[in-house]
Design a protein that fits this description.
This protein is of the alpha/beta class. The protein is built from 13 helices and 19 strands. The strands form four sheets. The chain has an eight-stranded mixed sheet with strand order 3-2-1-4-5-6-18-19, with helices on both faces. A seven-stranded mixed sheet has the order 11-10-9-12-13-15-14. The longest helix is centred in the middle third of the chain and has 20 residues. The protein is globular, with a radius of gyration of 22 Å. The chain starts with a strand and ends in a 12-residue tail after the last helix. The structure holds nicotinamide-adenine-dinucleotide (NAD). The site of nicotinamide-adenine-dinucleotide has 29 residues, from α5 and α6.
C-alpha cells in the first residue's frame, strides 16, 4: 500500500505530516512511502532527507493523491476535493467539530476520513494525541511572543544600573498549553501565577514553581468527563471576571488558553479589565481561533488598546514547525500503525480509538457528534449523511 505525504497548502502552514525520521517505521510495516517534493521544506526537512530514509518523491500533487492512504496536517483543502476518490483513506486534522461542513464535503468524495482531533484522550492513545502535542508547542510559543512584545525583560536583574523587576505573568487555563506556558515563562525568569476552573490543576501549577491564583468561586461542577472543563453559566463567568480584575491590574503578561471542548471559548477579560492593566502589558490569547478569552482579541491580528498589546495568534504550532512536525509525525504514524494489520487497514469500530476518529466512510459522515453538529449547521441534513449513525441516522449500525 502506498502512503503519501502531501505538501500542506493552508495559508501560512509550515508543518509537514511526516518527518524523515518517521519514514522507517512505515516502510518496516510494509508501506511504500511517497512524499510530495518540498513537502518538508518549511519544517526544515529537504527532499533528499526523505529519500535517504527510504521514501520516494512525487513531483506532482496529482501523483500524491493517487496513494491509498494520505497523511496530512490539515485535511483537506477545497482544491484537493476533486483529487480524492472512493477507497482512499485520509488521515489528518479537519476540525470536524469546528467546521463540520468541511467533513461533509470530504465525505461526499467517498474517502474514509479520520480526524485526529477527536481521538479519545485515553492512556493507550497518548502516543497519538495530536491535541496535546500541538498544545505543548502553542504554550511554549505564546510565551515567546509575549516576551518579544513586552517592553521589559522577563527575569529580575540586579545591575549596577539598578534593579529590574521581573515580568508578572498570569496564565489562565492550565491545561496542556497553559502548563507549558507556565514552565516556559518560569524558565525565562518571570514571576508566574496560574489559574484554572478545575481545582485538580492547582498541584500541577505549583509543581512548576508557579503560584495558583485562588478565587472564591464554586467550582464543584467545573470538571466534566475526561478531565475537561464544563461550560459554566454567565453568572459564574461574570464573578470570575470580577475577581480577576484586581490581579490583572498588577500583571504585565497574560497568556489565556481557557477552552471548553466543542464550545466557543469563554470571555474572561473584558475591555474594561484591559483598560485597568499596566501600560505596555501584553495579552497572548491562545484561544483566539475559538473566539478568544479576551473581548478585544481579533483572531490572526495584533491589537493595541488602552496601551495593552493583545495578540490573537491562530496557528502557533506552525511557528515552531520542526518540532511540531516531529511530534505530529510520531502521533500520526502511531495512529496509522494502530489501524493496520499485515499491511491492510482494519477498521474495528468497536475500538474506541477508531470509533472516536472515524469521521466519514462510504460517502457519509459517520461520527455521531459531527452528524449532530451538521444537523444544526445545515438546518436539515441530507438523509444519506445521517443514515446508519447509531442514535442519529436510520439504517444499520456502523
Ligand atoms: P482545553 O484546551 O480544552 O482547555 C484548556 C484549559 O482551559 C483546561 O485546563 C480548562 O480547564 C481550562 N478552562 C476552561 N474554562 C476556564 C475558565 N473559565 N477559567 C479558567 N480556565 C478554564 O484542555 P486541554 O489542555 O486540551 O486538556 C485539559 C485536560 O484534559 C488535561 O489537563 C487532562 O486532564 C486531560 N487530558 C488527558 C489526556 C490523556 O489522558 N491522554 C491527554 C491530554 C489531556
Amino acid at each position: 500500500m502506498i502512503v503519501a505525504v502531501a505538501k500542506e497548502t493552508f495559508p501560512g502552514e509550515r508543518r509537514v505530516a511526516l518527518v524523515p525520521s518517521g519514514v522507517a517505521a512505515l516502510t518496516k510495516a510494509g508501506f511504500d512511502v511517497l512524499v510530495q517534493s518540498s513537502a518538508g521544506d518549511a519544517a526544515g526537512h529537504c527532499d533528499s532527507q526523505y529519500v535517504e530514509k527510504g521514501a520516494r518523491l512525487a513531483e506532482t500533487r496529482d501523483e500524491v493523491f493517487q496513494a491509498d492512504i494520505l497523511l496530512q496536517v490539515r485535511s483537506t483543502g477545497a482544491d484537493d476535493l476533486a483529487r480524492l476518490r472512493p477507497g482512499q483513506t485520509v488521515i489528518g486534522m479537519c476540525d470536524p467539530l469546528g467546521s463540520p461542513q468541511v467533513a461533509n464535503e470530504v465525505a461526499a468524495t467517498g474517502v474514509t476520513l479520520f480526524s485526529l482531533e477527536t481521538l479519545p484522550r485515553i492512556t493507550r492513545a497518548q502516543g497519538m494525541d495530536v491535541l496535546s502535542s500541538m498544545a505543548t508547542v502553542a504554550g511554549y510559543r505564546a510565551v515567546l511572543l509575549a516576551a518579544e512584545a513586552l517592553p521589559q525583560m522577563f527575569p529580575m536583574l540586579m545591575t549596577a544600573a539598578g534593579t529590574l523587576a521581573p515580568a508578572r505573568t498570569l496564565v489562565i487555563g492550565a491545561g496542556v498549553a497553559g502548563l507549558q506556558a507556565i514552565a516556559t515563562a518560569r524558565r525565562l525568569g518571570a514571576v508566574v501565577s496560574g489559574y484554572d476552573v478545575r481545582p485538580t490543576v492547582k498541584e500541577q501549577v505549583e509543581s512548576l514553581g508557579a503560584k495558583f491564583l485562588e478565587m472564591e468561586l464554586d467550582t464543584a461542577t467545573a470538571e466534566g468527563g475526561g478531565g475537561y472543563a464544563q461550560q459554566m453559566d454567565e453568572e459564574f463567568y461574570r464573578r470570575q471576571r470580577e475577581l480577576m480584575s484586581d490581579t490583572l491590574r498588577a500583571t504585565d503578561v497574560v497568556i489565556t488558553t481557557a477552552a471548553v471542548p466543542g464550545k466557543k471559548a469563554p470571555v474572561l477579560i473584558t475591555a474594561e479589565m484591559v483598560a485597568g492593566m499596566p501600560q505596555g502589558a501584553v495579552i497572548v490569547d491562545v484561544a483566539a481561533e475559538r473566539g478568544g478569552n479576551c473581548e478585544l482579541t481579533v483572531a490572526g491580528e495584533t491589537v493595541v488598546a488602552h496601551g495593552v498589546t493583545i495578540l490573537g495568534p491562530t496557528n502557533l504550532p506552525s511557528e515552531v514547525a520542526r518540532h511540531a512536525s516531529q511530534m505530529y509525525s510520531k502521533n500520526i504514524s502511531t495512529f496509522l500503525l494502530h489501524i493496520v494489520d499485515e499491511g491492510q487497514l482494519k477498521l474495528d469500530t468497536e475500538d474506541e480509538i477508531v470509533a472516536g476518529t472515524l469521521i466519514a466512510r462510504d460517502g457519509k459522515v459517520v461520527h455521531p457528534l459531527v452528524c449532530e453538529l451538521l444537523g444544526s449547521v445545515l438546518g436539515s441534513v441530507p438523509g444519506s449523511v445521517l443514515d446508519g449513525v447509531p442514535g442519529v441516522g436510520k439504517g444499520e449500525d456502523n
